[in-house]
Each structure stands twice: as C-alpha cells, then as structure tokens.
From TrEMBL:
Source organism, top-level taxon: Bacteria
Protein's UniProt keywords contain RNA-binding: no
A GO term, aspect molecular function: ATP hydrolysis activity
Keyword ATP-binding: yes
InterPro entries: AAA+_ATPase (IPR003593), ABC_transporter-like_ATP-bd (IPR003439), ABC_transporter-like_CS (IPR017871), MacB-like_ATP-bd (IPR017911), P-loop_NTPase (IPR027417)
Designated name of the protein: ABC transporter
ABC transporter domain location: 1-219
Keyword terms of this UniProt record: ATP-binding, Nucleotide-binding, Transport
Cellular component aspect of the GO annotation: transmembrane transporter complex
Family that this chain belongs to: Belongs to the ABC transporter superfamily. Macrolide exporter (TC 3.A.1.122) family.
Organism: Pseudidiomarina halophila
Length: 219
C-alpha cells in the first residue's frame, strides 16, 4: 500500500494431500483468505512457489491461471454470488455449460439436497439453500479442489451445520480435496486436518484422530 509493505503471508510452507478435508483456522487478518486465493490461482504470490501436481502456478500467465481455475478449482464464498435472475438450476448450468466433464445441474443440486428447489430463484431460497446452490455450482464441474472461504459466515449454527455436512459428504463421496476457511474453532473438528494461521504464518498443523459429523456441530 504505497510506501507501506504488508506481508499478508510469511514463510508459509504447505502441502495439501489429495482427497483430504482441511480446515484453515485463524483470527481476522491472519492471512487465511490470502492463502486460499493464492492456492486457487485467484492471486499470485509476490515471492515463493506454488505447484498444482507438477504445474508451477506461480509461473502461469493470467489466462493460463483462468484455465487452471476453470478446469480444477471450485470456489465457495461467504456471500453466495448467485445470479438473481437465474433459477438454481440455471445458476449451476452457467458452469456445466463450459466445463469439460461436468455432472448435470440436476445431479449437482441433488447432491446438496435441493432436488425440489431447482426451479426457484435465489430470492425464493433461504441463506442456507442459496449457499447449497453455490456449492452445487462449485462441484458440478467435478473439480479436484474445492476452496471455501467462510462458507457459514452468514448463517446461523444449525443452517451452517447443514452446509458443512454437504461439504463433508462431497469430500467423502467425490474425493474432492477440500479446504475450508473459518475463524470458528468448533468447525475444526469436522476436518481430517486443521491448520492454524496467525499473523501470516502457520502456527500449527495437526490431524484429527476422529472426524466429527458436521451435521452435529453447534456454535
Ligand atoms: N489488497 C490488500 N492490500 C493491503 N493489505 C491487504 C490486502 N488484502 C489483505 N491485506 C492484509 O493482509 C492481511 C491478511 O488478510 P486476509 O484477508 O488474508 O486475512 P483473513 O485471515 O482472511 O481475515 P478475515 O477472516 O478477516 O477475512 C491483513 O492484515 C489484511 O489487512
């Protein structure tokens, strides 16, 4: 920022294992979103290296990064970013129409439990349902990686539990490597692995011996 240099991340060294469900925990400003955006090819690091399998993402051009995101990454954000004038099915079809080996919008919406809401517009859906449409849209192209930035940040605890349950099921049924950002410690218990960030650095990285079913989480 002008003359002031801000180090959003410092010395982060991290490897995500295929198929794991990771929760990234940290206080506001700890660098979670910056890390997720770099991992997803939305941002590029000012220094350091980042690989997706053998592909050096830090060396790709913007259009190559766009292709990487389109082919491999699904994103879910705190605010659902659905297109208001399109139904749930049409929102998902926006992605399936350009993906190379997608599932049908109907299958994606069935996986998130919204079979009977397919023809509803976002304004006719609850917050939790809108987030589940956003998850259906993110997984419909069968991405290898699903990145979720505070997916339950705008939801109450029981609705949030349902949304996290969907993420846990998708991870186990489709084997999608999943990273979920939160500042909520309780959500850590649903993960295979919990990584804590503080002031731009990883302060701990541990595996849960047992995963809690997300639908049972309350906060
Ligand atoms: N575009 C930017 N310009 C300057 N500083 C930034 C920018 N984006 C983030 N930062 C700073 O980098 C640090 C990390 O921000 P980041 O958004 O990654 O944190 P976070 O852990 O996701 O926070 P939150 O939970 O509040 O979203 C913060 O100190 C933030 O102020």
């Amino acid at each position: 920022m002008g003359d002031v240099e801000i180090h959003a991340l410092r010395g982060v060294d991290l490897e995500l294992i295929s198929g794991e469900l990771v929760v990234l925990l940290g206080a506001s400003g700890s660098g979670k979103s910056t890390l997720l955006n770099i991992m997803g090819g939305l941002d590029t690091p000012t220094s350091g290296e980042l690989y997706y399998l053998k592909t050096p993402l830090h060396q790709l051009t913007q259009s190559q990064l766009t292709r990487f995101r389109r082919d491999h990454v699904g994103f879910v954000f705190q605010f659902y970013n659905l297109i208001p004038s399109l139904t749930a099915r049409e929102n998902v079809a926006m992605v399936t129409n350009i993906a190379s080996h997608p599932m049908s919008p109907e299958e994606a919406l069935e996986r998130v439990g919204l079979t009977n809401r397919m023809d509803h517009f976002p304004s006719q859906l609850s917050g939790g349902e809108q987030q589940r449409v956003a998850i259906a849209r993110a997984i419909a192209k069968r991405p290898e990686i699903l990145l979720c930035d505070e997916p339950t940040g705008a939801l109450d605890s029981s609705t949030g539990g349902l949304v996290l349950d969907v993420l846990q099921q998708i991870n186990s049924e489709l084997g999608t490597t999943t990273a979920v950002i939160t500042h909520n410690e309780i959500i850590g218990s649903m993960a295979d692995r919990v990584i804590r960030l503080s002031d731009g650095a990883i302060t701990s990285d541990h595996r849960n011996l047992e995963k809690a079913p997300a639908r049972d989480l309350r906060w």
